[in-house]
Amino acid sequence: MNSQDSLPNKIINAIQAVAGKEPLGLHEPTFDGNERRYLNECIDTTFVSSVGKFVDKFEADLAEYTGAKYAVAVVNGTSALHISFLLAGVKNDDEVLVPTLTFVATTNAVTYCGAFPHFVDSDEKTLGIDTYKLKQHLLRNTKQKNGLCINKLTGRTIRAIVAVHVFGHPCDINGLLSIAEEFNIMILEDAAESLGSTYNGKHTGTFGFTGALSFNGNKIITCGGGGAILTSDDSVARRAKHITTTAKVPHAWEFIHDEVGYNYRLPNLNAALGCAQMEQLPSKLRAKRNLYARYKSEFSTLTGVSLLAETEKSKSNYWLNTIVLDRDQMHHRNAVLEATNNAGLMTRPVWKLMHELPAFSNCQRMNLETATQLSRRLINIPSSSNIL
Ligand SMILES: *Cc1c(COP(=O)(O)O)cnc(C)c1O
To answer: Is residue 369 part of a domain?
Structure first.
């Protein structure tokens, strides 16, 4: 095979046909709106820290956009997950079902509550939890006792399932909701990557008990750092606000904290950036959909590789475009990563699977064959919304 025709070269040519020959990052933030104005307003008014009008506005904007009744802004997506688990009642010695194909924050947040992650396999089409396999696993390995789902091997309560919408692609939410119902397990959503993505026309992060968002610098919009907890339950929203703001009881001058709280509040400065970014979310989503369509037309002519697409019920935000090597091509993965990065195109493999990380290698898991294969087949390609 002539090296021009090698898979790595064909992939470089396809990316460059869309995005040009200049070096490209994987996902760069863009600030084309009111960012400077709102940040200056924080400085001019001295409201840079833990209270201020942008925090309230950012929460209202998020709730309105997602259709969640409430959004509680917090300092990052990891803390949004941590508080979500706490509010769901995840505690010492519980188990939480987590896809092995996710970012480490999902799994870390489970352990912050003293609970054990229990790893599940992923689906090739959505990259989310394989609900068929999960159901079989639960039928074989759990029993019901006092309305709880008990792991027959460990004796622990399986309290929750984390639905992660990987790279912005909604997972099989209906499948998970019916498992939740059948086995008495709560669904919590890690929607850190899926702001703007919907399932059956409803925003991701609004199906479960809570939905966690992230506004880290690499996400579709950014606050610098930030996160939010979505919920439709008044009391959950109130408690989320309370324990993320040191559990302080409102009082004109006294410092009374009525339980152990966390300092997880989002500073007004970060919220100001978030408000300006929210104004640009629709245009960023259009740009991403357009970039996906152009990549699709290039990659559809290649053999050995395909571009991950949204599924029937879903609308993806296409946060990170993802190519999938055919099974018989996966031995080329490192060559593709090396050649594209050498050509100035930032590409990345998927995260190391959770059950392969030292901190989690002893956790229980089902057969993880699909995720294991996917981890050798997936490559993220440059996806910034400013690629013209
Ligand atoms: C980014 C991300 C998080 C964590 O968000 P931070 O704001 O970085 O703490 C959690 N889960 C997933 C899937 C993410 O991509």
So the answer is: no
CA–CA separation, 338 vs 7, rounded Å?
12
pLDDT at 159: 98
Q: How many CB atoms lie within 10 A of CB 234?
A: 10
Q: Could you give the C-alpha distances from 373 to 96, 182, 263, 331, in angstroms and in order?
A: 23, 29, 40, 11
1-38 pLDDT, tens digit per residue, is: 456 689 999 999 999 999 999 999 999 999 999 999 99
Beta bridge partner(s), residue 202: 199
**63-117 pLDDT per residue, tens:** 999 999 999 999 999 999 999 999 999 999 999 999 999 999 999 999 999 999 9
In a domain, 378, yes or no: no
Mutate which of 102, 193, 194, 197 to test ligand 1's pocket (most atoms within 8 Å of Cβ)? 193
Q: Which atom of ligand 1 is nearest to the CA of 165?
A: 13
Atom of ligand 1 nearest to the CA of 219: 1
Ligand 1 pocket test, candidate residues 190, 222, 244, 266, most atoms within 8 A of CB: 190
Question: Could you tell me the CATH number of the domain that includes residue 55?
Answer: 3.40.640.10
H helices present in 207-352, as ranges: 234-244, 268-299, 333-342
Rounded to the nearest angstrom, the distance between the alpha carbon of 81 and the centre of ligand 1 is: 9
Claim to verify: residue 324 and residue 199 sit in the same structural domain: no
How many structural domains is the chain composed of?
A: 2
Most informative mutation of 75, 214, 219, 320 for ligand 1 (most atoms within 8 A of CB): 214
Among residues 230, 255, 278, which one ends one of the domains?
Answer: 278
- List, for the chain, all residue ranges whose pLDDT scores fall below the cut of 50: 1
- In 3-state terms the chain splits into helix, strand, coil percentages (rounded to 5) of 40, 20, 40
Q: Is 107 in the pocket of ligand 1 (CB under 6 A)?
A: no
The candidate with the shortest Cα–Cα distance to 71, out of 236, 220, 294, 200, is 236
Ligand 1 centroid–CA 219 distance in Å is 9
Q: Are residues 265 and 286 in the same domain?
A: no
